[in-house]
Amino acid sequence: MRTKIVILIIAVVLGLFAAFAAVNYVESARSAIAAEEQPVEVLVAQQDLPAGLSAEELIDEDYIALAEMPRRYVADGAVSSIAVIEGKLLTAPLTKGEQVTTGRFSLPTEAGLSFAVPEDYVAVSLPNSASRGVAGLIRPGDSVVVYATFEIEDAVTKLILPKARVLAVGVSTTSVLGDSEGEEAGGIAPTSSRAAAKDEVSSTLTLALSPADAEKLVFAQEEGKVWLALLGSGTTEVPGTPGQRYPGVIE
Predict the structure, then answer these.
(1) H/E element holding 227?
(2) CA angle 178, 181, 183 (to 5 degrees)
(3) How far from each other are the two terminal CA atoms of the chain, in whole angstroms?
């Protein structure tokens, strides 16, 4: 009789334990489901986007925007803040409605210059100098105006490219080209070899141009003299000019 009572007690205890475990499991499952259904904001492509666009362009042109979706549908590495991809380039195309993920972005130095060249454009380099290149103050990401002077028949100076984006200065594709000035301010003078290296690195400018504008630049570089002017950050359009000839330039 005592054995039966013991067995009955054990059975009741095990039953209670099983019921408790079942309740816990159901509650955990409900919590997990609720968490999976919780809305999360992520950046989503608003249209089909080609590789090569910068994070700043994506935001400025409203190519990507925040959208809410259940957590369970959020992709690995999904981005909810532009700060995560700031200063980076899109290295793989995005389709409309696709989530923006960190795996699609790389720093310009890692991605390669080709990703910074807009679709249907080419990258063209030209010699740079302090006198013709705004005292060496041009940085990647700036926009410049290109002027050319020709002495074929009647000499003329003319604006040939109203706006061209600078992709690289020397081999640098970032806005920070060197730290020599900072070192001098800190009391450590740059060595002559490092200064020479910096001069060599900054000796060319690479511009993003349409094929037709690239022809103009190459011709002007080969047959004339090229000068650059730096555009302000807020300038969107530069009006055309008739050009200057002698003696009109001094009238």
Answers:
(1) strand 225-230
(2) 95
(3) 127
- Computed over every residue of the chain, the mean pLDDT equals 76
Per-residue CA distances from 77 to 16, 57, 114, 185 (Å): 43, 20, 24, 40
Residue written as tokens 């409900």?
30
Pick the CATH number of 39-113 from 3.40.50.300, 3.40.1190.10, 3.90.1210.10, 3.50.50.60: 3.90.1210.10
pTM for the model: 0.54
DSSP secondary structure string, 17-83?
A: HHHHHHHHHHHHHHHHHHHHHSEEEEEEESS-B-TT-BHHHHHHTT-EEEEEEEGGGPPTTB---GG
What proportions of the chain, in percent to the nearest 5, are helix, strand and coil?
Answer: 35, 25, 35
Q: Phi first, then psi: what are they for 249, rounded to 5°?
A: -65, -20
Cα 87 to Cα 53, 55, 65, 99: the distances in Å are 11, 6, 17, 19
Q: Which residues are within 8 A (CB) of 111 and not within 5 positions of it... i.e. 6 or more apart?
A: 88, 89, 91
**Residues forming CATH 3.90.1210.10 domain(s) in the chain:** 39-113
DSSP code, position 191: P
Q: Which two structure tokens, joined as six digits, stand for 172?
A: 């640098």
DSSP state of 153: S
Structure confidence by residue, pLDDT tens digits, 191-247: 444 444 455 446 888 889 999 999 999 998 888 888 888 888 776 677 777 777 766
